[in-house]
Amino acid sequence: MIDIKSSSNKALLVHIEKFPIDVNNSKEEFQDLVRSANIHILDTIFFTKKNKNIGIRYYIGKGEAEEIASEIKKSGAKLVIFNTDLSPSQERNLELLFSARVLDRTGLILDIFSQRAFSHEGKLQVELAQLNYISTRLVRGWSHLERQKGGIGLRGPGETQLETDRRLLRARIKTIQKRLLKVGNQRSLSRNQRLKKSVPRISIVGYTNAGKSTLFNLLTDMNTLSEDKLFATLDPIHRKLELEFKKNAIVSDTVGFIRELPHHLIESFKSTLSEVAESNLLLHVIDLSDDNFSAYIEEVNSVLKNIGAEEIPKILVFNKIDQNYNPDNFSHLQKDSFCYISAKTSYGVDNLRKMISEKLFEDYMLFTINLKPEQNNIRAAIYKNCNVVSETFTKLGRCEIKFRASQSYAKYLRKKGFLSRNIQKKLKNSQEIYKTG
Fold it and tell me: What is the pLDDT of residues 241-280, one digit of tens each?
C-alpha cells in the first residue's frame, strides 16, 4: 500500500498557491496534515500559480521543477509532498527528475487514514480507498519489466507482471466491497433496532481538528482519543447521551471533513457516513480560533450535501470561544440554531445539552389522556416513548397524563383507540388534544 515511512520521515514540502488566493488552501493546514502523518518537515517551498493552466509534464513549470530538484540535493530529502493532486504521469515524471519519492495531497490523506484506522471496518474502508488510488499508478512500480509485444521474435511471456497485478487488484477490491457490504448490513440492523426503540440519533460533524472528540467526551463522560492533530478520529464511536424527561439518545463522533475530500474516499466511507445521513440531529462543531472558519463551514455543508444530509436539523456549535470571540465575524451565519462553547473549559455545554433536547423534541405535540386503572400498560408505554410533563390521579383510580409525543407515536395511540380519530384535523389548530378513556 502507500508507505511513506519506507521513503523517509523527513520531507520537503511544495506549497502551490493558486491565484486568486484561496483562503481554504492555507499553508498552515498543509503543514498540519504533514505533521499528522508523523513526518518531519525539512523545508517548505512556495509557488504562486497565476493562471489556470496546469503543466502536463510536471503540473508546475519546468524551471520551478528544476528549482525544487536543486533544493532536494541541498537538503538530502527522500520525500517530496505537494499540497495539490497530481496525475499518475506527473507524479512519475517528478520522481524521475527529483530521484525522490513524490506524494500528492490525496496520498498524504490516505496515509494519515491508514495510521488512524483501528476497527475492522475502518481498515477495510482505508484499504479500499488506497486500492482505488493506486490502481492508476501501478505502471510506476513495473516500468522496468518486459512488455508483451506481437510479431516473430518479439513475443512476450504472456501476461505481464503489470497485467497480473491489475487483475489481482480488481479481485481484492471486489472482495473488500463484499465485506463492507456485509458490515454495512450489520450496521443497518443496529440502526433499525434503534429506530424500533425510538432512540434519537445525534452525529457530531465538523471540519477536522475542530474539537469534536473533546466535545464528545464532555457530553458522554468518556475518554476517547482526543489529539491536536488532523483526523485524530477515524472510526465512528457511539455512546449514550442523557437528555431531559429521563430520555436517552445515541451520539456519534465521526471523522472530520476537509476541503476537497477525495471522491473515492467518500465512496469508501459511505457506510460510515450513512450514520450521519440517517441522524435526527447534527452538531456542527466550528473552531472559532481558526481565521478561516467561515470557509470551513461551507466545506462541511458541501460534504453534508454530497452524502444527502443537508436537510437534517443541526446546531452550529462555535467551539474554542475561550480563544476567540468576535460576534461581528459570524453574525451572518446564524440562520441555524447556534451556541458558543469551550469544550476545553466546559463553558456553555449545559446550554448545549438543553438546546439538544429542545431541538430533538421541537416537533413533539402536547397531549392529555385519561386512563382507567386497568390501562396501566398504556401508562408505562407513554413513560417509555414520550416525554411526560405531569400526571394526576383521581379518587376513582383514573389518571390524567399530560405528555409530549411525536406525531408518529400519536398515530399509534390513535390506531389503538386511545386518541380520538378526529385529532388529525385538530393537530393543525391546537397543540393539546384531550381524550377520555
Answer: 888 777 788 898 887 777 776 666 776 666 667 778 888 8
Residues 6+ apart with CB under 8 A from 406: 198, 363, 364, 365
Q: What are the residue ranges spanned by the domains of the chain?
A: 10-103, 198-360, 365-436
Q: What angle do CA 249, 250, 256 make, to 5 degrees?
A: 130
Out of 2.40.50.100, 3.30.470.10, 3.40.1280.10, 3.40.50.11060, the CATH code matching 10-103 is: 3.40.50.11060
CA atoms 31, 33, 36, 39: torsion sign? negative
Q: Does residue 424 register a pLDDT over 50?
A: no
Amino acid identity of residue 270, one-letter, is: K
With 0-12 / 13-18 / 19 or more C-beta atoms within 10 angstroms meaning exposed / middle / buried, residue 433 is buried
CATH class of 198-360: alpha beta
d(CA 202, CA 198): 13
Could you tell me what percent of the chain has a pLDDT over 70?
74
DSSP 154: -
